[in-house]
Amino acid sequence: MPPIVVEAFEARAKGARRQDLARLTGLSGNGVVEMLKNKAYTGIAFSGSYVNDNGVGKGALEGKPCKPTHEPLISKELARLARGD
């Protein structure tokens, strides 16, 4: 069974409402919004302008070698669909 976060992103990509995701995850409505915006689920580690996109430096790390980050829980495409980008 996939983690709740994965279920929530998949449900949102299929049109689930924020209230439905709040019930599923136990988060508040605002918590759901923040979860959907959180790029860490796609394997991106960040702190301010320092961005490590799974081994590719961006922002303040542009052009600098980075160690690969954690394994993503969801794809960038699923995150995009869930956010409605």
Structure report:
By secondary structure, the chain is of the alpha+beta class. It has one domain. It is 41% helix and 14% strand. The chain has helices at 4-13, 18-25, 29-37, 76-83; strands spanning 44-47, 50-53, 56-59. It has a three-stranded antiparallel β-sheet with strand order 1-2-3, with no helix packed on it. Helix 1 packs antiparallel against helix 2, helix 1 crosses helix 4 and helix 2 crosses helix 3. The longest helix is centred in the N-terminal third of the chain and has 10 residues, at 4-13. It is elongated, with a radius of gyration of 14 Å. The mean pLDDT is 93.
Give the SSE map:
Elements: H1 4-13, H2 18-25, H3 29-37, E1 44-47, E2 50-53, E3 56-59, H4 76-83
Antiparallel strand pairs: 1-2, 2-3
Helix pairs in contact: 1-2, 1-4, 2-3
Features:
single chain; 85 residues; alpha+beta; three-stranded antiparallel sheet
Strand arrangement in the largest pleated sheet = 1-2-3
From N to C, what is the helix and strand string?
A: HHHEEEH
How many strands in all? Answer: 3
Low-confidence spans: pLDDT under 50, at least 5 residues?
none
Whole-number mean pLDDT: 93
Shape: elongated
When the domains are counted, the total is 1
What's the quick description here?
The protein contains four helices and three strands, in the order αααβββα.
